[in-house]
Amino acid sequence: MTENKSSTSKTSVDRSLFDKVILPVYAPAQFIPVKGQGSRVWDQQDNEYIDFAGGIAVNALGHCHPQLVDALKNQSEKLWHTSNVFANEPSLRLAQKLIQHTFADRAFFANSGAEANEAAFKLARHYAIEKFSPYKTKIIAFYQAFHGRTLFTVSVGGQAKYADGFGPKPADIVHVPFNDLDAVKAVMDEHTCAVVLEPVQGEGGLTSATPEFLTGLRELCDKYDALLVFDEVQCGMGRTGSLFTYMQYGVEPDILTSAKALGGGFPISAMLTTEKVASVMHPGLHGTTYGGNPLACAVAEVAFDIINSPEVLKGIQARHDLFIEHLEAINKQFNVFKGYRGKGLLLGAELQTKYQGRARDFLNIATEYRVMILNAGTDVLRFTPSLIITPEEIKSGMVRLSQAIEKIVKAE
Predict the structure, then answer these.
(1) Is 207 part of any known ligand binding site?
(2) Which CATH number belongs to the domain containing residue 24 in this structure?
(3) What's the pLDDT tens digit per position in 381-393?
């Protein structure tokens, strides 16, 4: 007989409840955010925090942007969900805008970056099989990459800590060092269906691809009839200063994935591709229940319009420079950073040798001083704030970060 459980209405909703009811795959901070506005967040005790994390590069327009709130309210009173048995206006408008402003001819919507990447990898293999050979299935990917948590995407990602321990993995995936074109050449052959990478590795430490590397990959893919797949889940949608990062390199992919900032906080993702590649697909070959739902697409359309505006895109580099200026001032005082990584507002500060392996400690102590940051691996502090964070919010957050770092340094 099922045990009679007390109503959750009688249970105090605090941080201790997490340890009782949520699958133990996360280790969240000890405070619970309950309200946000711009780049400020308040917890259950009404303490204010400065948000330099942006929901891991998701809240590109901060918390509760009024135009996104209006879009959500308006669509919520019209149509939430129909399934993909029917088309809907918001998804068609969003797809049209993504196509108009990128290399792509076709869009596929899902709910998360992992789902977009799953679709991309399946499409790449199916295209190669249909157009060339059933044996053209090799995917070349890179160490320290991150592409999602499904079994396929975590296998393409180049970090064993995320992929091991779940039984047999999808086969025919080869990993090589990032930014090493010779390593790619050594494993590239007629059986390769795709080369997959993040133009700026996110979880892997914020390493940017070199122009020579991306140009070389494009040439190799053309030579071997392989597809070039860019995972811009984290580095896309204005995060690095252009609508998508590939635009800074002059190298076009065959498939691109987007998520995180695409919905400004509402779950949505997209896979973009060319007509040539899309032509191998037909109804029933792939799908999703919630992907492209009117509610998500209505919010994402407004987020896209704002992010893709000259005002927002041109302001990202200035904010990047301001972050670096403040980090340099902190470093001049405490000597904790050995260098900076990333582009735009996908920014990393690499810890000095004596502090390496302790990025999570910096994150945790930062929350004590009410500033929210991230780590990228164990040696890099990561900053992915709102693309429209104000100079005042940056200054306030950096004052708090300086106090947190001072505590760590004095404890040595």
Answers:
(1) no
(2) 3.90.1150.10
(3) 999 999 999 999 9
